[in-house]
Amino acid sequence: MSNLEKEPPEVELDSGPRATDSVDILEPRDVPLGGPRAMTVRRTLPQRHRSLIGAWCFVDHYGPDLVADRGGMVVPPHPHTGLQTVSWLFAGEIDHRDSVGSHAPVRVGELNLMTAGSGIAHSEVSTDATTVLHGAQLWLALPDASRHTAPAFEHYAPPAVEFGGATIRVFLGSLAGRTSPALAFSPIVGAQIDLAPHASVELPVDAGFEHGVLLDTGSLTVDGEHVPAAHLAYRKPGSGVLRLEAGRDGARLLLIGGLPFGESIIMWWNFIGRTHDEIVRFREQWQTDVVGGVRDDGRFGIVAGYPGRPLPAPELPGVRLKPRG
Ligand code: MN
């Protein structure tokens, strides 16, 4: 997915202020993905008071949307740097193409993990067979030591494991005795958890991790704190147990977590870097090499098989932004 905000702000992200209570409820904001019948996503990260949960730096949640009404997902080739994209669906199917030659469907309950590293481009289009689109896209910031790694694409279909009244699919890291083989560059966890009606589980988690719980459907408390639908509950590090309790409709949620990232990053449009100049260079290379068609062997490469033009980058802010901190 691409950040299609018209004037994306350049923000320096850090771990933000600490909550006084152990659970903070983060509200989603609606962001249109662009186009005349554009679908809208609910963004819970980054936001003013919380930019990162471990290395997780971007959480977009969408649907269920009727493709006939909302146009589905049509995101032309666009670049990324310094991050991994995690695509996860509850309904529908998306056709993924990227500049390392991958052409793969994103399917319900299966991880598509794209490592941008030094630079990649990809397109995402919901398939013709998709009538309802419902899912999430999350980004992971790469630590400084790994952010120039070679771009790559990986697919993993995690088995569903039962844990108390929960059904758990671990797509990154380890949880409930399962470990995902998918490549992560910092200590993290990511899982879909389905709770039966009135189910209550005490999940053993890494006490050093901060965690986020995105409620997709149903009703839920996290450590006794009510979580409204489509909100992201943040819990700071310190406890090795995470308590989840569903209401009468059960609950479906995404659990994300990780060691506090400990680095400041700059996120602008679809790029993550460390300095303003670096972001400017990424943008220029995309605009010249790919949008301008000057070369197909540059930083981002070329997405083969997409029937249309790549997305031009938005204008940078008119002033040179200084790092905040
Ligand atoms: Mn993208």
Provide the fold topology.
Blueprint: E1 11-13, E2 23-26, E3 29-32, E4 40-45, E5 56-66, H1 67-70, E6 74-80, E7 83-91, E8 94-98, E9 103-106, E10 111-115, E11 120-126, E12 132-141, E13 152-156, E14 161-163, E15 166-172, E16 174-175, E17 178-179, E18 188-195, E19 200-204, E20 210-222, E21 225-227, E22 232-235, E23 241-258, E24 265-268, E25 271-273, H2 276-291
Antiparallel strand pairs: 1-24, 2-22, 3-4, 4-5, 5-12, 6-11, 7-10, 7-12, 8-9, 8-11, 10-13, 14-15, 15-18, 16-17, 18-23, 19-23, 20-21, 20-22, 20-23, 24-25
Bound molecules: manganese (II) ion.
Produce a short descriptive summary.
The protein has helices at 67-70, 276-291, and strands spanning 11-13, 23-26, 29-32, 40-45, 56-66, 74-80, 83-91, 94-98, 103-106, 111-115, 120-126, 132-141, 152-156, 161-163, 166-172, 174-175, 178-179, 188-195, 200-204, 210-222, 225-227, 232-235, 241-258, 265-268, 271-273. It is mostly beta strands and 325 residues long. The longest helix is centred in the last third of the chain and has 16 residues, at 276-291.
